[in-house]
Specification:
The complex is a heterodimer of chains A (515) and B (146). Chain A contains 19 helices and 3 strands. Chain A is mostly helical and 515 residues long. Chain A has a domain of 212 residues. Chain B contains 5 helices and no strands. The relative contact order of chain B is 0.15. The two termini of chain B are 17 Å apart. By secondary structure, chain B is mostly helical. Chain B has one domain. The chains are: A mainly alpha (515), B mainly alpha (146).
């Protein structure tokens, strides 16, 4: 995938992927013009997407890129460090943002007061900037800063749903409290690491941590970081904020968050587990096998079963997201390249699938004003395209062959077999059967129940259908042609497990590279 | 409405100008002494908030309207990020102040001065915006209902 950028841009690609949306946020706010705000946000997302593709293409050979901010050399200065693992996350976030924004343009008409539209775009861009920044930075404290940028704007975005349903406010408040606790735990963990090593640069940390396995401060730092980010990614017992936040947020926000926010948190945990700390540490292996692994299995079943009983479709999808996070963590806890690449491939495939589903639900909400299943009776005939997108997304969620979800589960089961853990493989298949139950409930309501006689619902406008179908088709495409996603994830998983992040990097803009 | 708080009004009028001046001092002396954009922004906003507390929100909104505060938040951030972009155009990395001037030391001076100004403007505007948001809420009970 040779992707050419002018040399001047290529040198700054890591910075620009974050900087362009950061600039778009104040510009969207400054002029107070809705069309302009949308235009610049969309342009920024597309530009960021192009830079991310370029970065991914450059690091696919296993190399690492380093960009020194402000001309200060790391470990003192802040460094942006790109390898295959975070280039993949950057690509997911920017691609989803570029697809969701055109959807948001139409969907917020009915969900958010017009005077708030430019502020919505500004917040959305800040959230996007934060997520990109978390993924790209090679400085542990910088992760926290960007995490707060994205979190604070996320709380606002969720609260914007109050226009339609006042419960969005309490959902945003719950998320605010739990998210802040998560961020605090994370920064306490960083403090403990900093106290022991005196550095915050991830690559530098990796080197200084070797041989310090028995240090208690570092162990507690690890615990704080895993729990803190666990709150952010809604790992099973820490997921309480997620269902309400996704249910009451505006449709476009739900889609964007479901597809990106938890993924970025998972990436951070992976980075800390494998690049900063090392899988060689006994306490980390124990954490993964005695804590993360059982919770991942519980999440797969408990959250799926709860999803079967929801009557709000958005809430059902939210619970299904918690179950999917279980699959991703299961892949990590296998501690082999195949398991880890299953996690990464599922990051991508689940982003596409859940994005498509949330967008399709958003289209239904746009037309009928409700996400409650009983209100969707017979919509399969009234809104055929939207319903078909839900069918595709649902099949991918179950993991039917020829959908993206199948590829993830295939790799995950392969990882389980690699460890001779066939009971785990059975559990994966069994939990997929629960997904059949909740997806079937939706399909039954959409297609088999008669529409009420007074139903006036019509097919969603093209502005909503096109983004939905881009993601729906993508979840089929990446199910049929899994070469790209699987090979990228494998490179990324190898990069993580081999600890290449701490090694030599190609400095593309830095003190040495100054002209 | 506020006619009976004579002492408060006189003292406020005396205080506003020195507070503003001190804010500017903290802002622009920040690279030599203690201070910088964050502190200066808060101090600068304090002068306005004090004025608003004593002379009513309505009169403050006339001086610094809502829309201006929102724009200033964006302007400050743009000033900060814009400095970084300029240094990129001049051949350095993002926020590399050395390239801002022929002399790297002078460049560092200019760089920190401008981005701190950006920080100061944004912090000032955010403080005011928060004050407006809280003070501007219609009270659940009128004063007369107490």
């Amino acid at each position: 995938m040779p992707l050419l950028l002018p040399e001047a841009l290529a040198d700054h690609a890591p910075m620009l992927a974050v900087l362009v949306p950061l600039l778009a946020a104040p510009l969207a706010m400054l002029f107070g013009n809705r069309a302009f705000a949308y235009g610049i946000s969309f342009a920024a997302s597309v530009a960021s997407f192009i830079f991310s593709m370029f970065l991914l293409a450059r690091v696919m050979d296993g190399s690492v890129l380093s960009y020194h901010l402000g001309g200060w050399a790391p470990p003192l200065g802040i460094e942006y460090r790109v390898d295959a693992a975070n280039a993949l996350v950057l690509l997911i976030v920017s691609a989803i943002s570029a697809v969701v924004l055109p959807f948001a343009r139409t969907s917020i008409e009915t969900e958010i007061a017009e005077r708030h539209h430019t502020l919505f775009y500004a917040c959305y861009m800040l959230c996007f900037t934060g997520l990109m920044g978390v993924a790209i930075t090679g400085d542990a404290f910088n992760v926290f800063v960007f995490l707060e940028v994205s979190s604070l704007s996320t709380y606002v975005l969720v609260a914007l749903g109050a226009e339609k349903d006042r419960r969005a406010l309490s959902a945003a408040y719950d998320y605010l409290i739990l998210g802040t606790i998560g961020a605090t735990f994370f920064v306490i963990g960083l403090g403990l690491i900093y106290m022991t090593t005196g550095t915050l640069n991830m690559a530098d940390l990796a080197q200084r941590l070797t041989g310090l396995e028995s240090n208690r401060t570092l162990r507690s730092g690890f615990a704080f970081i895993v729990v803190g980010m666990g709150l952010k990614m809604a790992i099973y017992p820490l997921h309480r904020w997620l269902p309400s936040a996704y249910t009451y947020a505006p449709s476009a926000v739900s889609a964007f968050l479901a597809a990106t926010a938890t993924k970025v948190a998972i990436y951070v945990v992976l980075r800390f587990m494998f690049s900063v700390y090392s899988a060689k540490f006994g306490f980390e292996r124990d954490t993964l096998q005695l804590i993360i692994f059982p919770f991942a299995i519980i999440a797969m079943f408990a959250a799926s079963i709860v999803a079967c009983y929801q009557i709000n479709l958005k809430r059902m999808l939210a619970y299904s997201s918690i179950a999917q996070i279980g699959y991703m963590l299961l892949g990590v806890s296998m501690l082999n390249v195949t398991g880890l690449s299953a996690t990464l491939v599922h990051l991508f495939n689940h982003a596409v699938t859940k994005g498509a589903l949330f967008l399709a639900v958003g289209a239904i909400v746009y037309r009928t004003g409700s996400a409650l299943l009983p209100h969707m009776a017979g919509l399969g005939r009234k809104m055929p395209w939207t319903s078909a997108a839900i069918v595709i997304g649902g099949l991918s969620l179950i993991g039917i062959p020829s959908t993206a979800g199948f590829v993830s589960k295939w790799v995950l089961i392969a990882g389980a077999f690699e460890r001779d853990a066939w009971p785990v493989a059975v559990l994966i298949v069994a939990s997929s059967l629960i997904a059949v139950v909740y997806v079937w409930r939706v399909l039954e309501v959409l297609y088999l129940q008669p529409a009420p006689a007074n139903s006036t619902a019509t097919e969603a406008p093209l502005g909503l259908l096109i983004p939905t179908w881009i993601l729906a088709l993508a979840s089929i495409w990446f199910g049929l042609d899994a070469d790209l996603t699987v090979s990228v994830s494998r490179t990324a998983a190898e990069a993580l497990l081999n600890g290449g992040f701490g090694g030599d990097a190609a400095i593309i803009m830095g003190v040495e590279g100054r002209k | 409405m506020m006619d009976h708080h004579l002492i408060l009004r006189v003292v406020t009028k005396l205080l506003v100008a020195p507070i503003l001046l001190f804010g500017l001092y903290v802002q622009f002396h920040g690279d030599f002494g203690p201070g910088g954009g964050f502190q200066a922004g808060v101090i600068f906003a304090v002068a306005f908030i004090l004025y608003g507390l004593v002379f009513s929100l309505k009169r403050l909104c006339k001086t610094v309207p809502d829309w201006l505060v929102h724009r200033l938040i964006a302007v400050g951030l743009l000033l900060y990020a814009g400095t970084g972009v300029v240094s990129m155009f001049l051949g350095g990395a993002f926020l590399d102040y050395n390239v801002l001037s022929k002399d790297p030391v002078a460049g560092q001076h200019w760089g920190i001065l401008i981005i701190e100004l950006g920080v100061g403007i944004t912090v000032f505007a955010v403080m005011l915006a928060i004050y407006y948001a809280f003070a501007g809420r219609p009270p659940a009970l009128d004063d007369a209902d107490w």
